[in-house]
Batch of 3 targets.
Target 1
Amino acid sequence: MAYWLLKSEPSDWSWAEQVKKGARGAPWTGVRNPQARANMRAMKKGDLGFFYHTGDEKSVVGVVKVVKEAYADPADEAWPLVDVAAVEALARPVTLAAVKAEPKLAQMVLVRNSRLSVQPVTEAEWSSVRKMGGLK
């Protein structure tokens, strides 16, 4: 299993909207960066990801699971979609400032390339952020 971080502007697609979609999930749309596209194509059913609110919040707020692997976006077949479903909310959001302040996370893509909308997360980073967010 691989781990990911998926970023969304809450005014475009929020954690609450993701949760409302239930176990069937919803397509992760709007990705138009070649590196993020490659990351989406690498996602496998069952992989987990952090749901990250961009904008003013800048924080990890939940965990999602890939429920459907990459397929062509009907709006533009050059770009993939993956479907993700909400798994659980973090007990407390983990802000970008908190991530940057944690020495164990200094090499995390979120710290080094915070603009990338879909990014890999290592197992150690996954564990650290979950713990910071109040999850086991």
Note: The longest helix spans residues 123-132.
Target 2
Amino acid sequence: MKNLIAAFLLLILAQTTVQAGFLAGEAALHAGQFERAHAELVPAADRGDARAQNALALLYLNGWGVSADHSAAARLFRQAADQGYARAEHNLALLYQTGRGVEKDEALAADWLKRAARRGYVPSQSDLGYAYYTGQGVPHDLLRAYFWWTLAAKRLDLEATRAREDIIFMMTAHQKDIAELLAAQFVPDR
């Protein structure tokens, strides 16, 4: 029993340390103290903290406090995305859209956007609406574009709100009604 309690306390201590490292790294990142952010985020990312992996990837992607390394950024975004962290899924999608650190693949970009959008991540919902509107990585589909833009607009995304207004005249009333019904019933994945 003592061993179980000791193991439990060590687990709590390790999680608290990871959490503290991420929070300190995030604060340094927002303060523009990139070298300090890197030093704080690396241990948390190495321990598997998806938020730290995503933040560290941003440092490598932008060359903030480190040499820019798009491949390292992609690897870190993927580690965090594989854990279901929506921001990392979105960031990885952007890399696949542009071919930074990975081979450009619009279909794979759309898949990662879908994952994050289904979790309720508003930037992905807006971008996925655009993908369906343009047929970028997915079939051209005004109903789906309107659906995703409706979800993003409900969360006050101005671009999605404008986009919905722009395509409404291209849709039938039935398409609009279906998209709005689906949006009203949407429940994000967790």
Note: The chain has two domains: 12-104, 106-190.
Target 3
Amino acid sequence: MISREEAVKLLEENVKAENMRKHSYASEAVLRAVAKRLGENENEWGIAGLLHDIDVEITNADPYTHGPYAEKMLQGVISDNMLDAIVMHNEMATGKERFTHFQHALAAGETITGLITAVTLVYPDKKIASVKPKSVTKRMKQKAFAASVKRENILECEKIGIPINEFAEISVNAMKGISDLLGL
């Protein structure tokens, strides 16, 4: 399997926007934490989080090609399990519904990073260290706040047996662990 260092190199070669890279690092941290909580392969889940948007700039985030294009880029580089989760994080492109724990975890984990970042940015100090998981779950209920964040994707955490309050806590703590890298 690809090493983390090789995955970072791939990310940096294909994703130039700093905020997209930060999103990828945040997704990696959350996926590693979720994998640990579920007793899954932390490295595999983390690298899938890191690489899930590797094609986002190439496809201009087109909902019908983003994901499947990444599969072409990563075929033979990562496991089929990882490829499947990456393709399915954008189920719009596949016409199928997510059904595995890995698929649900990646969709929920990468999506909550955007909500947590938005919550962080409304705090006076703009530091993730100040963010409480309860603030994230409260903001989830406010549809106008970070309106583009798909709450239904985040709630897929419950399909893998992690209640939303715990999922928010796991995710916030994971992102706090890399706050310097995220600039938050």
Note: The chain has one domain: 4-177.
